[in-house]
Specification:
With about 325 residues, this protein is mostly helical. Helices cover about 75% and strands about 0% of the residues. Helix 4 packs antiparallel against helix 5. It is globular and about 70 Å long. The protein has one domain: ABC transporter involved in vitamin B12 uptake, BtuC. The chain has 13 helices and two strands; from the N terminus they run H-H-H-H-H-H-E-H-H-H-H-E-H-H-H.
Length: about 325
């Protein structure tokens, strides 16, 4: 009887381990099958695949930046505000020269990421509170600057081409993957996310690592801001709205542990972003209103966090 009981325990452990390691892929498969049925086969139709990619493109870029911050065990709730602010600054730069739009967007995102990183790493402000407050500040400044909407030359829409976006995402994703998996910076991030004090005693520059992670996240949000601007050729106070929620849901749905550290897998950003794009596209095809979509996404986030949160490794969520 004891041997049977032990075998059952081992079987349950292997099942839990399998589900934990493949949570993101199982969730993605379920989402695709569910919405393919609910949309009567329209989800994976040729006409809709580009819509899925467009959603994946922006969410994926944001998730790539967010995974560096969340690997530290930190959060960045200002990513949506950074996207909107970067687009606004880019629209002003267009008055001087169209060539300045991209640099303006990138520098704007980088500077806000720098401010976030300094406040979190040097002044030790909790990232949840700091980035939430920063989002309100940046949104307020964006609203003041734009006073509604601000357009740029329609010629900039050429940068919204599929080839450009595919190439951009491929380059950014490969660069982030190499940075995360094969450099000391990537190892330092996960070390800090596991136990910051132990990492410090091992010679890891904790403050510098946090600073660079927030700056990288801000830079990628600047890229998103640029593509949002050239797609609509308009900067609006609504640009980037709820973007922080979409990226957070993407990485968590992709299996990202909120506690950060060594268990984090780079694939969380990619698989989760595809899943999020499918969910968004599927709900749009079903004709759900924006409010209903937010309710569904909120319910999904609660469910995923409940299922995936590892309480044994949770010390403090900052």
């Amino acid at each position: 009887m004891d041997s049977i009981s032990e075998e059952r325990k081992r079987g349950k452990f292997r099942t839990r381990e399998f589900l934990a390691n493949n949570f993101s892929f199982i969730g993605f498969a379920l989402v695709v099958v569910l919405f393919e049925i609910l949309t009567q086969g329209k989800l994976l139709g040729a006409r809709n695949m580009m819509n899925i990619f467009n959603d994946f493109f922006t969410i994926g870029l944001g998730a790539l930046g967010l995974i560096f911050v969340m690997s530290l065990g930190e959060l960045d709730l200002s990513v949506g505000a950074i996207v909107g602010f970067s687009a606004a600054i880019g629209s002003f730069a267009a008055d001087a020269s169209l060539v300045l739009i991209l640099p303006a967007c990138l520098i704007s995102g980088l500077l806000i990421g720098l401010m976030n990183g300094l406040l979190v790493s040097r002044l030790h402000v909790e990232s949840f509170i700091e980035t939430l407050a920063m989002s309100f500040v940046i949104r307020g400044i964006t609203t003041f600057l734009l006073n509604g909407t601000r357009g740029i030359g329609i010629a900039m829409r050429v940068f919204d081409g599929d080839i450009i976006k595919v190439a951009t995402f491929a380059v950014v994703a490969v660069a982030c993957y190499i940075l995360y998996e094969y450099t000391m910076f990537g190892k330092h991030i996960r070390s800090v996310g596991s136990i910051a004090e132990a990492a410090r005693q091992s010679g890891v520059p904790v403050e510098k690592t946090k600073l660079l992670a927030f700056m990288l996240c801000g830079l990628l949000c600047g890229i998103v801001g640029f593509f949002c601007l050239v797609r609509a050729c308009t900067a609006s106070t609504k640009t980037g709205n709820a973007f922080e929620f979409s990226t957070l849901l993407a990485v968590v749905f992709g299996g990202m542990p909120l506690t950060g550290g060594w268990p984090v897998r780079f694939r969380s950003a990619l698989v989760g972003s595809v899943s999020m794009a499918v969910i968004t596209s599927g709900m749009s095809l079903m004709g759900l209103s924006g409010l209903t979509q937010q309710i569904v996404q909120g319910a999904i986030l609660i469910g995923v966090v409940t299922l995936s949160f590892d309480r044994r490794n949770a010390v403090v969520i900052k």
